[in-house]
Amino acid sequence: MNNSFFSKFTPKETKFFPILTEMADVILVASDLIIECVQNNNHELAIEYYKKIKEQEKKGDKLSAKVFDELNSTFITPFDREDIHHLADKIDDVTDYINSCAKKIVLYNPKQIPAKAVEIAKLIREDAIAIQKAVNELDVLKKNSNKIKEYCLELKVIENKADDVYENFLIDLFENQKDAVEIIKMKEIMSELEKATDAAEHVGKIIKTIIVKYA
Amino acid sequence: MNNSFFSKFTPKETKFFPILTEMADVILVASDLIIECVQNNNHELAIEYYKKIKEQEKKGDKLSAKVFDELNSTFITPFDREDIHHLADKIDDVTDYINSCAKKIVLYNPKQIPAKAVEIAKLIREDAIAIQKAVNELDVLKKNSNKIKEYCLELKVIENKADDVYENFLIDLFENQKDAVEIIKMKEIMSELEKATDAAEHVGKIIKTIIVKYA
Amino acid sequence: MNNSFFSKFTPKETKFFPILTEMADVILVASDLIIECVQNNNHELAIEYYKKIKEQEKKGDKLSAKVFDELNSTFITPFDREDIHHLADKIDDVTDYINSCAKKIVLYNPKQIPAKAVEIAKLIREDAIAIQKAVNELDVLKKNSNKIKEYCLELKVIENKADDVYENFLIDLFENQKDAVEIIKMKEIMSELEKATDAAEHVGKIIKTIIVKYA
């Protein structure tokens, strides 16, 4: 049977989900790059990694803009327009903080990248995977709301771990680093990584808000 | 007469208000602890106070999660679900900043806690009381909207006072403290306290937004 | 014909737009003042400029409060009440950051105001004009949504330019300034200016969200 008649009424809005998934993929690529960047601890290489991360950041921006354009041209959306907009914005924030970290490594040129940067960078990678999973379930929100809530909880757990790493880094920094300028540099570089995990937790909060409204 | 039939239809949503009240109580307990903590100006004691404040912060988190769970299981809510969610989140922020202040005192271990920290900590206590009062009137929003607006204004006035204290602290800090590392430490510790009063003002703004929509 | 009957039903909500326009005007005045302030690079003059900018900041606050009061007393609004509230809040943020910059110049009293401060201050002036234009089209949102989107894009472009200036300032600062306290001071003063351009971009994002919902 030709179901072209019915397919016309198939919700067109499912196109939002692939874009959000792509945005989560961008975080994953960027997190792999920042892991390598902080592991290498070399200014020349950092410049190269920053270029590559900047590309991902731009890709994220474009995808975010695409979500906005789609929202403008789509009559029926799966959730409230502003929720999708908000979610896309916040997913983009995670990539932005990874980019800010790489940028500060390049701009500040610290004598040393803190060893603990690798740990937080790896936690951001875990965030990327949890966000991917959560976003992939959004189109079956009602059915899988418990699963999605678990991913959101995971984002919270990861953020707590990143907090601990960051705290230990700070204790060590203030005890052992006597050069105030290096303290400023390292603290801010690490802070961007920590903020990336905050932003990822925030993504989880927005998804939870969507669940509150629609599941 | 047995009114079990009607009681089934009694709005169950009033359960949100006691949780929000409990969250305001948590701010009050935490503010009392941070006042004592900064008054004592002693690292060993600070560690103890931080533990107690951390407990309050966790309690706040749990209450915030409870609001979320209730929102998920309640059909009728007094306001839009996302407004309640948003309000709970922001009330929780005040406690989070008190906790961050205590944490930074412990992690940074400054040579001295600024004297003006006591002043801002006491202003946060005033915030806690104003938030308690405002939240306690939310269930009679329409009747008491003018009273609630006054509490919101009070939160704004307190924030302005905290700003002044923080400004005077900064002038003094940059004039008299020559150790850059101590400047970083004290400035950030005080900044967390100041942010707590900002967050409290933000709570007022959200409540005002709710009034705009429902009163 | 006397149309007093019909005029009663004329949407009263158009009164929101003149207030938003006035708020954009406040940013323009404040940006002119901060340009002069950073060009003069003199502590005594900075105190005078700060007083004048503070007046604008207070004017912005009053206008923002006026929007809130109007929302409370108006039955029909052009957009959702909370969108107007949100927009007014964020326009106010731009003026707030200009004010924070002036305040920090006065409080921190740096040995020198960075030359690049003038560049960012001028970009904030461009923001002010773009926000004025966008706000002026809001009452004909449906007709002029493409034009408004252009102004929002402009706010994004300006923010990118400000980012570049700020980055070059940071590279220079960390390479050439050896006094950690001066680094802290100059970095924060410049950061407030950069945040003003961020806030202006945010205004654009909110306007875009309104377009998503209503155009």
Automatic annotation (TrEMBL), chains A, B, C:
Q: Highest taxon of the source?
A: Bacteria
Stored SUPFAM superfamilies: PhoU-like (SSF109755)
Q: Sorted alphabetically, which Pfam families does this protein's record hold?
A: PhoU_div
Q: Which family does it belong to?
A: Belongs to the UPF0111 family.
Give the protein name, as stated in the record. Answer: Putative phosphate transport regulator
Give the source species.
Paludibacter propionicigenes (strain DSM 17365 / JCM 13257 / WB4)
